[in-house]
Amino acid sequence: MERISFDLDSYERRVRTQPCFICAIVAGRHDSDLEQVVADDGENLAFLCRYPTLLGHVLVAPKHHHEQVVADLDEDRFARLMRLVHRVGRAVQAVVPTERLYLASLGSQQGNAHLHWHIAPLPPGVPYREQQFHALMAENGVLPWSYEQAVELAARIRAVLPADEQD
After folding, report:
1. Cα gap 50→36, rounded to integer Å
2. 163 or 28: which carries more pLDDT confidence?
3. Given a cut of 70, is residue 58 above it in pLDDT?
4. Measuring CA to CA, which residue among 32, 11, 16 is closest to residue 151?
5. Rounded to the nearest 5°, which phi and psi values hold at 93?
6. Rounded distance between C-alpha atoms, residue 11 and residue 112, angstroms
7. How many whole angstroms separate alpha carbon 128 and alpha carbon 147?
8. DSSP codes of every residue in 93-149
9. In 10 A of CB 9, how many CB atoms?
10. What's the pTM value of the predicted model, to 2 decimals?
11. Per-residue pLDDT tens over the stretch 6-17
12. pLDDT, tens only, 106-145
């Protein structure tokens, strides 16, 4: 996987000093067209990662600003969020070659505090030492991509997104 260097210091400054990027996306005021929305169930939102380390990297978050994975969500709310994670994960696997689908809730109270899940498809053939955490770390570089590529990938994911059985 070709990657380009990532300015971790600038990224850290931005996420620690600026308003919540997920709340900005929900409000329609985000500053990156790369964060294309792929799913919106009214309560939760899924969108492409601005700085993907793996092609098809998607974030899923509640629209309301929650910060704790289990403490802020009751069991039903958590289950609804995870249903969207599952649906989007299946759609990502349908359009991006995937050896293993990584799911992780990352973030920090010091930056990126808004609760969110990462869906990141590891492509087949990645050497073992470049898998798992290594594959997810922006410090190892991010994928170079354009607005046009993001729009095309988001459309492909939306096109195969399975219907929510609860609708």
Report:
1. 9
2. 28
3. yes
4. 32
5. -65, -25
6. 11
7. 31
8. HHHS--SEEEEEE--BTTB--S--EEEEEEPTT--GGGSTHHHH-GGG-B----HHH
9. 8
10. 0.94
11. 999 999 999 999
12. 989 998 999 999 999 999 999 999 999 999 999 999 999 9
Phi, psi of 4 (to 5 degrees): -115, 155
Tell me the three state secondary structure of residue 59.
Answer: strand
What span, in angstroms and rounded, lies between the C-alpha atoms of 99 and 135?
13
Block residue for tokens 């308003």 = 19
d(CA 149, CA 156): 11
- Mean pLDDT, rounded, of the chain: 94
CA distances from 112 to 8, 33, 59 (A): 14, 19, 12
The dihedrals phi and psi of 14, each to the nearest 5 degrees, come to: -65, -50
- pLDDT band, residue 164 (cuts 50/70/90): low
Query: What is the radius of gyration, based on Cα positions, of the chain?
Result: 15
Pairing assessment for the beta strands 44-48 and 58-62 based on DSSP bridges? antiparallel
Interacting residues of 149 by C-beta distance below 8 A, sequence separation 6+: none
In this model, does residue 163 exceed pLDDT 90?
A: no
- Residue 167: pLDDT band (50, 70, 90) is very low
Residue 11's identity, in one-letter code, is Y
What 3-state DSSP class applies to 71? Answer: coil
Length of the chain counted residue by residue: 167
